[in-house]
């Protein structure tokens, strides 16, 4: 909360510490205004407002107010676990099981490093999230920017026939040896009718991640037709 904003608010001196605490717990600026009896509290999104019949005075009452504010914000912004949604709708190849990394003697193989269960969990969650984002984009004409509502899965179900393990390879339609991302862009521009993605575009990175992940276990065979 900016001190200047607080000073400008004529009700600030009488706001209970409890409400202030609740708003601060939300980690961003909130502002409080209203008639002396009814208090109107605004969440940090600048849109969600809640009218409190009574000014909270204890921490517990402040928590009730904060919970009500968050509940009304969540109603407008359903948490929508997109990753869960992607997983329930699409087949994703399982990630490599790294549990052997925790075996005794890991220090010999990885000098100076001791990996923990937590490390493995972070690797798995982060990697699977990137792959799931790729699956989401692959299946969404909108996210791909298709001007004809076409998505990759319509021709490559579960990423079939994308053969990421064969890159780099000569592609006749492009007329040179290319990387996987070049072929992704070729399909984006032609069958999908979208703008090509910049090499570092998060969507390109996620698509690459998904295509490679789906072929887990397939030996690399660059140049293969
Ligand atoms: C209308 C059908 C269609 C759509 C939609 C489509 N593709 Fe393709 N794609 C093809 C065909 C056909 C080929 C084979 C071209 C060739 O290798 O001669 C191909 C080839 C590829 C290849 C290279 C395969 C290989 O064997 O080297 C990749 C990678 C690929 N597509 C990815 C994508 C991605 C990513 C999308 C979505 C952005 C997409 N495709 C959308 C039809 C489609």
Give a verbal description of the structure:
By secondary structure, the protein is mainly α. It folds into two domains: 3-76, no CATH class; 82-214, Cytochrome Bc1 Complex, Chain D, domain 2, CATH 1.10.760. The chain is 42% helix and 8% strand. The protein has nine helices and five strands; from the N terminus they run ααβββαααααββαα. The strands form two sheets. It has a three-stranded antiparallel beta sheet, covered by helices on one side. It has a two-stranded antiparallel ribbon with strand order 4-5. Strand 1 (31-33) and strand 2 form a beta hairpin. The longest helix is centred in the middle third of the chain and has 22 residues, at 117-138. 21% of the residues are buried.
Report, as a whole number of angstroms, the end-to-end distance: 61 Å
Tell me which CATH architecture of the largest domain applies here.
Answer: Orthogonal Bundle
Ligand inventory: heme C
Residue-averaged pLDDT, rounded?
84
List the helices and strands and how they pair.
Layout: H1 3-8, H2 17-25, E1 31-33, E2 39-42, E3 49-52, H3 59-76, H4 82-89, H5 106-109, H6 117-138, H7 141-144, E4 169-171, E5 176-178, H8 180-189, H9 202-214
Antiparallel strand pairs: 1-2, 2-3, 4-5
Helix pairs in contact: 2-3, 4-6, 6-9
The structure holds heme C (HEC).
Residues 144, 150, 152, 154-156, 161-163, 166, 180, 183-184, 187-188, 191-192, 207 line the site of heme C.
